[in-house]
Structure formats: C-alpha cells, structure tokens
Design brief:
The structure is a homodimer of 328-residue chains.
Chain A (H helix, E strand, L loop, with lengths): L2 E5 L7 H14 L4 E6 L1 H4 L6 E4 L20 H11 L4 E4 L3 H12 L9 E7 L6 E5 L9 H19 L5 E5 L10 H12 L4 E6 L11 E3 L2 H28 L1 H20 L7 E5 L4 E5 L5 H16 L2 H14 L1
Parallel strand pairs in A: 1-2, 1-4, 2-3, 4-11, 6-9, 7-8, 7-9
Antiparallel strand pairs in A: 5-6, 5-10, 10-11
Helix pairs in contact in A: 1-9, 3-4, 5-6, 5-10, 7-8
C-alpha cells in the first residue's frame, strides 16, 4: 500500500484548499494511505486519513535557514513523519526555499547528487508530449558540473515519468549555436558534449521551448524560474485578453459561444493548475512542492503528479542510475 | 530633414524583406532621407533613396570579433556611412553580436556609459502602455553596477519614448521580496535602493511582466534574452493552438468566423512583427536591430521604432542626463 504525507497548512488559503485537494485525491485513489499533518481541529472531519497534529505554520516569507528552528511546524513535522514512517512521498504548498532546504536536510541527498533540482514539465504545444525542465528554482546559481548532473537527472525523470527511452537533452541558452550562453552555460556545454549517459542535442532558445524540440531542458535555477513564470504569465495574460476580446462585441460574443471548446482546450493546456506541482529531485524520497496559491483543484493535480512519480518508481531508478554511473 | 541609414543585406530573406519594409516606410515618411547600403544591382529600383554599394554580406553566424575585419560588408559600411553623414539613425537585421559590437566600436559609447544595452518594449496586456525591458541580449553577463546603470538608461528611454515622467523601475528576479534573485541581482538591488535618479519599485517576477506593474524592467542580458524569447514563443504557440482548436470542429469553425476580430486583436497585440526592433542604447546614435527573420512588414515596423526614437530625441536626452548625473 502506497503511503503519502501531506503538509496541510502551507498554502495561502490555509487548510481549505489542501482539504479539498486531498478529498478529491482520496476519491480517486482510496487505496493510498494518507497521513495529514496540521492543526488537528481543522482536520478532524478528514476521517479517512491519519491525522498528525502540528500547531505551528511556516509563513510564506520563511527562509531556508529559519525553517530549521521551526520544529513544531506542519512542514518540519510532515518531513520527519515521512522519514519515520518510510512514506513513499510527501507534498507541501508552503514556502519554497524553506521546504526545499528542510527536505534536503531531513531526507538527505541521494549519494552522488551534488545539488537537488526542482523539476517541472511543460506541455508541448505541437504534439502531446511533455518537456521536462530543471532547475526551476531550487538554486539561484549553479556550477557547470551541477548543470551537467541536472542533464542526467532530467534524463532519468523523463524516462521514468514519460517513458522516453533516449530523451533529447538541450541546454537553455540565448542562442542556438555552440558558444552562445551565459559563462556557466558555455562551460556546461563542453561537459554535456562529452557525457555518454545522455542524448545531448545542443542549445535551445526560450521561444522553442513549447515546440517539443527537446524532451529535457537544463537551466540554472534562476533563469529556469524566470522562464517558468514568464510562460505562465504570458499564457494567463493571453487567456484574459482573449476573453476581453470576445466580450467586446456582440458578434464576438456569439462567436465565443460556438468556439468555447477550442478556447477551453487552449487555456486548459497551459493552465498551471493542471500541472500544479514540481518535484525536488535528488533527495531520498518523492518530494513535491505545490503552488503556494494552490486551489483545491490544483493541489489535487499536484498530488496526482506525486502519485505518478511514486508509481513510476522514479527514486529507485535515479538511485540505481547514480550507482551504475559510479561503477562505470 | 531626418536622415536614416539602412543595412539592406542583413536579414535572413536578403534584400527582399528590407526593400519591402523600406518602401512601406518611404510611403509613410517621404520627407525622411534614406541611405541604403547593399548590393547595388539588387537596389537600383529604389530610386527614391541614395544607394551606397557594399558587395560583402555578414552571415548570421558572424561573431563580435570577426565583424571588425569585414570592412567591405554592408553592415560595417552602413555604420561608417552613418558616422560620416552624421545620420540620425541606423538599422540592420544582421547578426546581433556582430552588429552590436561594430556599432559600439564605430559610433563609440556615450561618455559615462559602462556598457550598452539592448532595449525593447512589451505591450502591457492590462492597459495600453508599454513596459521597457533591458538588457535583452547585448551582454550575456553583467555586473551589479551595469544593472544599476541600465535602470537609469531605461528610465531615460521610458521618458523619451512613452512620456512617463517617473517610470516605476523593477528588477527582474525569481521572487518579489528583497533578498531574492541571482547573486548579481541581489547586489544590484542594494545599489538601486540608494539611487535618487530613478523610481525604484523593487523586484518583479516573470509572470507579472505583462501586467503593467512596472514601466521599466532591468535584467542581465542573458536572462532578459531568455525572457523575451519565452514570451514570444508562448504567444506564438498559443496563437497556433487556438487556430487548430478553431479548425477542429465545424461548430468551432463557425464560431471563429464570428469571433475573428477578437482573435486578431489578441495575436496582433503580441505579434513581434508589430514591435520588430530593439534599440542598442548607450552608443552615439539611434541604433536599431531588427529581427533576423524580419518580413517586409516587421522590418517596416522596426523602422517606425527607429523613427519614433529619433523624433523623441532620445540620444540627446540620455547624453544630457548622463552629463547632469556627473555634475551632481
């Protein structure tokens, strides 16, 4: 039986969104054991799950250093519970920096991993696949060696989650030719070219990301985070503008009624609440960070990501790959 | 009489696109003197303009160092012509790195400027204004001091081009709070906080860019370039997906016929060919880089940007501002 620990208190909406998300998940997967960590009084109606009380809540402004002292917080108790109970996965919508550092500290890095990375996936607009992107914010600066390792970790992820045998790995850059890129990126390019355990396909620019030309895109955490948010912001902004346009004229209003399915397809494809979660890759355990402003629906979707990663046995696969790597 | 020099040969489509763009521009502004640099045989029908022959064409792969030796190229001859003829502005669709370095070398930096920046503007999806963004690719790494100067240069641009008196300047970051950002960004934040000649409004994340919360957004050239291309790619991809959706069902096709104006409004607002050009700011002269894959329409639009910058007397304003700055 799979076992998942949920930090119920981290999101901007408190336990309202997480409770809704957990309930939706439980309906779909009644066979998964759920351990919910948070204020007992708010959770007592969740009778289908085990409740672990935690009175303290880590604020969204809580930093990576501060969280260590918050031993009574739902976030830290959830991580310790996951470790003690040998859970298959853990999820939180709490402060990113705090969650990532506490997870690394408590669950420890997989042997061989220099630095964990936050991994997410983009829908490919042309085609039905997904492009794996890392790091999207676990670090704000990385070494060329770390980027090279991200390429390998991304390859493992793409294989485990999307079943792509030889994922094409590209390096995010400001130009497609070799020799373009940030100083760190240029050095990473040279390392990637020599790696035998990945299928390196050169540099990729930001405008090609959604085209499906790469299965894995590697970036430093700072630029990856900016890119992720820019994509979300552009998609959201366009959706809003489109709606305004439809409502501006009677003729457009009528058109909208007819064309609704097409518009829905578009907005749902790029709606972040349909992806909802990013995995912290490189630690012992499936760790998913949900959006801080998660709704019930998007928290549920992040839980589905977590479940999918557990089912794909991604941690074992990464561990094995790193062990093999060392042996070679 | 205003005088503009055009490198006719740089674009992917050769002189076909530039000729169309120049003709459209001339129709609208018959009073502007045009000097066209390129292969005379291809340009001889452009009888309304002065033609300067250049037999060599700089390839798109030409780098910043190589261009210096290409004295017979349309790019270098155009820049030298602009200098000798004391032209008001110059435009090229040629290789970015080559054009920027040749322009800096030939036209020289404005006294006081540490490093020129490539400047462009984004339409604000909520509202009718534009957000000025720099650097979008003149450098691939910058110092905190350069970022601080970009903030001041962007302020000058926003004032001259959009008439905003006290533009709100934000620093691109991976989080809105102080203390977020790349190592260089964090140091720049401290400098920006102390500057008296700009209206600093803190950090901004990529998803807020199109919201119009900032009039000027400052970034290092590498991340700025990635962000610009990501926005373009997302907008283009969504437009394509929307069209596919409309065509997938008869009912949606009918809807599209009615809703067309709304869709057109959307795609035109984010169509790069409606902005089309970026200014190299910090050198002596109005220097505009058009997209390498410019069509006639987008090259014309880039020429309009150039014209607008000349009309706004942006170079004099920047020079004056830098002199004042020194005197204070």
């Amino acid at each position: 039986m799979k076992k998942i620990v949920v930090d119920m208190m981290g999101s901007d909406l408190g336990s309202v969104a997480t409770k809704e998300g957990v309930s939706l998940f439980h309906e779909k997967h009644p066979d998964v054991e759920l351990i919910l960590v948070g204020k007992e009084a708010e959770l007592k109606d969740m009778t289908f799950a085990k409740i672990v009380n935690a009175d303290d809540v880590v604020e969204m402004t809580c930093g990576a250093l501060e969280v260590i002292r918050r031993k009574g917080s739902s976030m830290v108790i959830a991580l310790n519970t996951a470790k003690e109970e040998n859970a298959d996965g853990i999820i939180s919508a709490g402060a990113t920096g705090a969650f990532l550092s506490a997870a690394t500290l408590i669950l420890k890095k997989i042997p061989g991993v220099q630095r964990p990375a936050l991994v997410t996936a983009f829908p490919q607009l042309e085609g039905n696949g997904y492009t794996t992107l890392l790091d999207v914010g676990a670090s704000n600066t990385n070494t060329p060696e770390e980027l090279a390792q991200f390429a390998f970790m991304g390859t493992c992820y793409s294989r485990a989650v999307y079943g792509i045998k030889e994922p094409r790995v590209c390096l995010l850059s400001n130009g497609s030719e070799e020799g373009k890129g940030s100083p760190v990126g240029k050095e990473a390019y040279q390392l990637l070219k020599e790696m035998k355990n990945i299928n390196f396909a050169g540099n990729i620019e930001g405008d090609k990301l959604l085209k499906g030309l790469a299965d894995v895109v590697v970036s430093d955490g700072y630029t990856g985070n900016v890119m992720l948010k820019t994509t979300e912001g552009t998609a959201k902004g366009m959706g809003k503008l489109l709606k305004q346009g439809f409502m501006s004229k009677l003729r457009c209003k009528i058109g909208y009624l007819f064309a609704k399915p097409a518009v829905k397809l578009l907005t749902s494809k790029l709606d972040p609440s349909n992806v909802g979660g990013a995995m912290l890759m490189g630690v012992n355990g499936v760790v998913v960070k949900a959006h801080g402003n998660s709704t019930g629906k998007s928290f549920h979707s992040a839980m589905e990501v977590l479940y999918h990663l557990i089912e794909g046995d991604v941690i074992t696969k990464i561990k094995d790959a790193f062990v093999e790597e060392k042996a070679e």
